[in-house]
Specification:
Order of helices and strands of chain A: EHEHEHEHHEHEHEEEEHEEHEHEH
Radius of gyration of chain B: 23 Å
Oligomer: heterodimer
Structural class of chain A: alpha/beta
Number of domains of chain A: 2
Structural class of chain B: alpha/beta
Shape of chain B: globular
Number of helices of chain B: 14
Shape of chain A: globular
Largest sheet of chain A: 7 strands, mixed
Distance between the termini of chain A: 49 Å
Largest interface: A-B, 44 and 44 residues
CATH architecture of the largest domain in chain A: 3-Layer(aba) Sandwich
Strand order of the largest sheet of chain A: 3-2-4-5-7-6-12
Mean pLDDT of chain B: 95
Strand content of chain A: 15-25%
Low-confidence stretches of chain B: none
Number of strands of chain A: 14
CATH architecture of the largest domain in chain B: 3-Layer(aba) Sandwich
Number of helices of chain A: 11
Mean pLDDT of chain A: 97
Number of strands of chain B: 7
CATH topology of the largest domain in chain A: Rossmann fold
Distance between the termini of chain B: 88 Å
């Protein structure tokens, strides 16, 4: 068994390469994805190996990128488009919500839209405004889109391939601050879990912490810290935000009786609101406390010098866990 | 007082004076009076059979429009987007297509749909509210009607980029080489998506013809609200040619569109055709043009009716007899009957149908919502005996 230690950026790059090798209908398109390899280098070396017809540098127009991807999908291609930063997806919002999400429904299933829209999301990199946003709830709220978020290098490798092979449009969220952070051991011969499944990444018995993307690492650190205080936290990496895979969540909360959701997105009408509602409906008699949410404040993303005061961190998540024990 | 600042050329010097009649660059092969004229660049030697065919197509297209409008008035359709006056633009463009060419329509291309072999009855579903365009786009190479103005021009460009990758552009094989036509209107020319489509198509030299039916009105807003220069002139700024054709002249529209499509098929990239026409009816059946435009204008354009001028030409040249008109009238009546009866027979979707086709396969989440709703509906069974 040969394994290698890779970063998330490398995992995504390897996954894209594998998908392009497996299916010559897979095309990559986006701003600077060619020679430069993308501003985060996720497509590094791919244009050199697959040519300009398959790794396409686009004009600087996000609606154009997604709109032309719709046409390519109609022609039988599987376009994978890169939105350079989360805050730049909004010019493409109309094409995503009105066209990508609805084409299969409008055509009564006659047309498939196998488009992957990759979005580096979240903060923590000290960037200027519009470079640190978490728009996932806006897409999860849209019927016809599937939304997933990877949190680690190994998932990055497998999930991008699964998203590309999937016949429905997938909004693929990549926690940009993790791109070049931690390395993990990848075994390319392993069998991955299905794409639209959540996973318990740390077993525990006292409270359940739900996280995805960048906050999975935060939640795992919380669990370590809590353990030293004699408290056992179960951490679930949701991985899929639409559809949600609630079975492992319900199973966990019925055992622990307490649930905290954390994400970088604003709390108001965020993923946490939906998760809290579902957990409350299904686990009502098991709950010892209300489901608490730890996310960004309902303010625009602040100047980066204070972003760590804005993003949920270890202490704020632990504080919420503490509060669930006060009931 | 200082003199006004001079800054670049005067628009009138570059584009000529403002025009209300199409201007000197208007390509025309058949005058409103039914007189055949010739053009040095765009022409076609139409056979009598072709001419009769184009006339028939326009008459039947108008019949589709008249019947659908009547169906709306009778409450059988929720709304209808009328094409009255634009028959020549649509038939000219539609008949210039080859089977392998692909059409991306707005929601008004009933004549083009007819040319592509889509049963006109299928067009009514969207407007009756029984579906959202239930035809298979790939069956007739005719995309779904697109309500969001201009969005389809990007789809057309992406589709054309796919054709390039499939090796069906510029091979020299007329059975193989293909192109895309993107329909839109004067109002859409202001949309960002349309301008982005121009840029992408130019950048990749994509085989797409941008076919703009300038019908002078975007609901209540006149063309002057969208542009300060003739629309076809914009194309050059994006890096491809633009031609203004008399959109009420089916012969000229056919000849110009055919040339544009051939150019695209041969691998010479995008082009822009502005079919200069007029929306003689309302924007849709919910619109009231008397609130914003003068009847004089409509009367002026009635004299340029696309069907009448070809009828005059056919008669004057002895290319038709009374039997032709009688047969066509019978055919139109039959089409009207098909639409009236067919429309009323279109089945309403069932309450649980709304859960289908959100995705290629139903998710557990949606299946659960469907089952819950089904149980809710079932709970009323027997309570209204």
């Amino acid at each position: 068994m040969s394994t290698q230690k890779i970063t998330l950026a490398k995992g995504l790059n390897m996954g894209l390469r594998k998908a392009m090798e497996d299916d010559d209908k897979v095309l990559l398109m986006g701003e600077d994805v060619g020679k430069l390899g993308g501003v985060f280098r996720i497509t590094d070396g791919l244009q050199k190996d697959f040519g300009e017809d398959r790794v396409i540098d686009s004009p600087l127009a996000e609606s154009g990128i997604v709109g032309t991807a719709v046409g390519m999908a109609l022609r039988g291609y599987r376009p994978v488009v890169e939105i350079q930063f989360d805050g730049f997806v909004y010019p493409a919002y109309d094409q995503i919500v009105c066209q990508v999400a609805k084409y299969t429904y409008r055509s009564q299933g006659k047309v498939k839209m196998p488009i992957v829209i990759r979005i580096p999301f979240g903060g923590g990199i000290g960037a200027v405004e519009h470079h640190s946003e978490s728009p996932e709830a806006q897409f999860a709220h849209t019927p016809g889109l599937k939304v997933v978020a990877c949190s680690n290098p190994v998932d990055g490798y497998w999930m991008i391939q699964q998203a590309i092979a999937h016949d429905d449009p997938v909004i693929f969220l990549e926690p940009k601050r993790q791109y070049h952070a931690d390395k993990a051991e990848l075994d390319e011969t392993a069998t991955p879990e299905p794409l639209f499944t959540s996973r318990v990444v740390r077993a525990g018995s006292d409270a359940t912490v739900l996280a995805y993307g960048p906050t999975v690492k935060t939640a795992l650190k919380c669990a370590e810290a809590a353990e030293s205080e004699g408290r056992s936290l179960e951490v679930i990496d949701l991985r899929t935000l639409s559809p949600l895979d609630m079975a492992p969540v319900y199973e966990s909360v019925r055992r622990t009786g307490r649930c905290v959701v954390t994400h970088e997105a604003h709390v108001n009408l965020g993923m946490g609101a939906e998760l809290a509602a579902r957990v409350t409906e299904e686990c009502f008699y098991s709950l010892e406390a209300p489901v608490l949410r730890v996310g960004a404040f309902d303010t625009p993303y602040p100047p980066s010098r204070i972003e760590e005061e804005y993003l949920p961190d270890l202490d704020r998540v632990l504080d919420a866990v503490d509060r669930t024990f006060a009931y | 007082m200082s003199d006004p600042v001079s800054f670049g050329p005067d628009l009138a010097d570059v584009f000529g004076p403002s025009q209300s009649d199409g201007g000197p660059d208007l390509v025309q092969l058949l005058t409103p009076e039914g007189e055949r004229v010739h053009h040095p660049e765009f022409d076609h030697d139409f056979s009598a059979e072709e001419l009769r065919g184009l006339y028939r197509d326009m008459v039947l297209t108008r019949r589709i429009d008249v019947e659908a409008t009547a169906l709306q008035r009778h409450g059988e359709l929720g709304i209808w987007a009328q094409l009255l006056g634009q028959e020549a633009a649509q038939i000219g463009a539609g008949r210039a297509l080859r089977p392998q060419d692909y059409v991306f329509p707005t929601y008004r291309e009933h004549g083009v749909a007819y040319c592509k072999g889509v049963d006109p009855l299928r067009l009514l579903g969207l407007f009756r509210g029984v579906d959202q365009g239930g035809w298979d786009p790939n069956e007739n190479n005719f995309g779904l009607y697109t309500i969001v103005i201009g969005a389809q021009t990007l789809h057309a460009t992406g589709y054309a980029m796919g054709m390039q990758r499939d090796g069906v552009v510029g091979t020299g094989d007329p059975e193989r080489d293909a192109a895309v036509i993107a329909h839109f209107g004067d109002g859409a020319s202001s949309q960002g998506d349309v301008n982005e489509a121009f840029i992408f198509a130019a950048s990749y030299n994509a085989p797409v013809v941008f076919f703009c039916q300038n019908n002078q009105w975007a609901i209540s807003e006149p063309i002057e609200r969208q542009t300060r220069i003739p629309l076809y002139q914009r194309a050059l700024g994006f890096g491809f040619p633009g031609i203004r054709v008399d959109g009420n002249d089916v012969l000229a529209t056919y000849a110009v569109t055919k040339a544009a499509l051939q150019r695209a098929r041969e691998g010479n990239g995008p082009s822009f055709v502005e079919a200069y026409t007029y929306r003689m009816g309302a924007h849709t059946t919910t619109d009231d043009p008397t609130r914003y435009r003068l009847n004089d204008e409509l009367e002026h354009w009635k004299l340029k009716d696309p069907i009448e001028r070809l009828k005059v030409y056919l008669r004057r040249n002895g290319l038709v007899d009374q039997e032709f008109f009688d047969d066509l009238d019978a055919e139109a009546k039959e089409l009207g009957h098909h639409l009236r009866e067919g429309c009323k027979a279109l089945p309403d979707p069932k309450p649980l149908d709304q859960f289908g086709y959100v995705f290629s396969e139903m998710t557990d989440e949606i299946a659960a919502q469907r089952d819950e709703f089904a149980a809710y509906l079932a709970s009323f069974e027997g309570s209204h005996s």
